[in-house]
Amino acid sequence: MDFNFDPEDEEFRRQFRSWLENNLGDEERAAHSPDPLGEEGASWERRLHWHRKMHAAGWAGIGWPRQYGGRAASLTQQYIYSEELARARAPQLVNGIGILLVGPTLMQWGTEAQKQRHISRILSADEIWCQGYSEPNAGSDVASLATRAVEDGDFFVVNGQKVWTSDAHHADMCILLVRTDPSAPRHQGLSYLLVDMRSPGVTVRPLVQMTGDAGFNEVFFDNVRVPKDNLVGEKNKGWQVAITTLMFERSGIGTRADLVERVVELAKLARRPQRNGHGAWQDSAVRQQVTRLYAEATALKLAGFRQLTSRVKGLAPGPEGSLLKLAASELNLRINRLAVQLLGAYGQLVSGAPCAVEGGVWSYRMLAARGLTIAGGTSEIQRNIIGERVLGLPKG
Fold first, then answer.
1. pLDDT, tens digit, 9 for 90 and up, residues 47-90
2. Per-residue pLDDT reduced to its tens digit, 346-358
3. Under 8 Å CB-to-CB from 55, ≥6 apart: which residues?
4. Contacts made by residues 371-380, CB under 8 angstroms, sequence distance 24+
5. Residue 274 CB: number of other CB atoms within 10 A?
6. Hey, which of 18, 134, 168, 259 has its CA 20 to 30 A from 12?
7. Among candidates 170, 147, 143, which has minimal Cα distance to 158?
8. 81/253 Cα distance (integer angstroms)
9. Alpha-carbon distance 252 to 92, whole Å?
10. Nearest to residue 28, comparing CAs of 101, 102, 91?
């Protein structure tokens, strides 16, 4: 495998790194929240301003076709883009679901009117989007959802509930998967709607996590009227559209190089005076643990390159995505667990507390880390996929 980037890609890196160095200020770095979904007030406004700054310079939605405002960046350039953002410690863009999922789905399935109405506003963050898939009894098995939509003239009337809806408290619009034919087999009676979150009957209730943030939400739909013009694809054939969205979600570019940087931060933390006037780094057992984590993070980065290479060759994303997701979320948990152990009693101080080391970012990350082993498919689900589709084991 060739780990070198071609001259065109390196020029892309040089241009983007130069732009970040000239435009990313200390205030924006300081506003970089450990969990951007939980941001509110001034912090959210600063990140929204950063998104619009990136968009104005042409650095939002770089993988989108040029006709929709993107740069038509190659897969390797999209990876470089993610790597440079992590290297610069830049805030995330505010409309990730819109740019990564909704825009590309509408490009493929949307009517011309839907494209004209939404796509440019998604890229500029003038329209923030959320995803209405999961329900209290339909998490990993989305096709068992119960939210109903019944036709009434030129409208669908929606009743039901969604849960774990990221950014719903900020969202203007929602991609909503609903059941329109309860008598059909589970995957055949679904439809895919675009719902205005300001519609009468939509109620958003934040779910406060143990970090204290509320980036996820419950969303309730009580006789919400959705114009039929907001149907994407055909009625009762929404599963095809939904699968397209899921494929964009699971094929996102990234090799988790950020975890290598996270271990480097951990090594710096271990050098801080913490025990009897010297840093924990002087303990050979601590150095061995950090080195092991660094080796694992590097191996994960290289495994990501393998996936990237396959996609550059035109191969479809495969079960290696589950391998990367499982390994990354579990490694992230162990990195943060060691950090909190190194901090000792200081590891109990919450983010922003007086005397908290580095503002309490490590304790925050530790509290948030377990959730990443659940979001996007639990570790148990990923192990099942790997066992069945990679190892060929029988279903349990």
1. 899 999 999 999 999 999 999 999 999 989 998 998 899 888 88
2. 999 988 889 899 8
3. 123, 124, 125
4. 371/209, 372/329, 372/332, 372/333, 373/329, 373/330, 373/333, 375/164, 376/249, 376/325, 377/140, 377/322, 377/325, 378/140, 379/326, 379/329, 379/330
5. 17
6. 259
7. 147
8. 9
9. 15
10. 91
Task: Dig out the tokens for 388 from the structure.
Answer: 């069945």
Classify residue 181 by its DSSP letter: -
Burial of 35 (0-12, 13-18, 19+ CB in 10 A): middle
- Catalytic machinery residues: 249
Residue-range domains of the chain with CATH: 7-94 (1.10.540.10), 129-240 (2.40.110.10), 254-390 (1.20.140.10)
Residue linked to tokens 């993988």: 63
| DSSP 8-class letter at 163 | -
pTM: 0.86
**Share of residues in the chain with pLDDT > 70 (%):** 93
Of residues 136, 148, 278, the one with CA closest to residue 219: 136
> Which residue type sits at 313?
K
Tokens of 164: 């774990």
215's CB contacts (< 8 A; 6+ apart) are 35, 36, 37, 38, 166, 167, 209
Sign of the alpha-carbon dihedral angle for 355, 361, 363, 367? positive
Model confidence at 95: pLDDT above 80: yes
Q: Where are the beta strands (DSSP E) in the chain?
A: 129-132, 148-152, 155-162, 173-179, 190-196, 202-207, 216-227, 231-232, 273-275, 278-279
- Helix pair 75-88, 284-312: axis angle to 10 deg: 150
Contacts for 76 with CB less than 8 Å, ≥ 6 apart: 5, 6, 9, 308, 312
Q: Which residues face 130 on adjacent strands?
A: 174
Buried/exposed code over 365-393 (b: 16+ C-beta within 10 A; e: otherwise): bbbbbebbbeeebbbebbebbbbeeeeee
Q: Report the C-alpha gap between 160 and 135 in whole angstroms.
A: 9
Pairing between β-strand 173-179 and β-strand 129-132 as defined by DSSP bridges: parallel
